[in-house]
Amino acid sequence: MSVWESIDSLKNFVYKSAHVELIRDRQAWFHKFADAHQALWWIPKGHIPTIEEAKERLETIQKQGPTESAFHFGKTFDSP
Asked: How far is Cα 80 from Cα 56, in angstroms, rounded to an integer?
């Protein structure tokens, strides 16, 4: 779990840094998940998200798909 200032800064890290090499070769590193395994959501400045909060957001995206409370790169929502 990590906290980023913007979706663009996270995308730049994921897709435009050395991290992209791991993404390209992810079959060597990870088993394919049947369900969603990532969730993005906005937090208020200064808030530190908990593991329980992350689990709830992941469950939300698995059950409802992307919403304002939990989304992914393919379907994002503006910061409230």
From this structure: 19
Residue 74, in any domain of the structure: no
Does residue 77 lie within any of the structural domains?
Answer: no
* Other beta carbons within 10 Å of 70: 23
- In the chain, what is the greatest distance between 2 CA atoms, to the nearest angstrom? 37
On whether residue 38 sits in a domain, the answer given is: yes
The domain total for the chain is 1
For residue range 39-66, list pLDDT tens digits in order. 999 999 999 999 999 999 999 999 999 9
Helices (H), 5-77: 7-16, 19-24, 26-29, 51-64
As a whole number, the mean pLDDT across the chain is 88
In a domain, 14, yes or no: yes
Q: Helix (H, G, I), strand (E, B), or coil: what is residue 16? A: helix
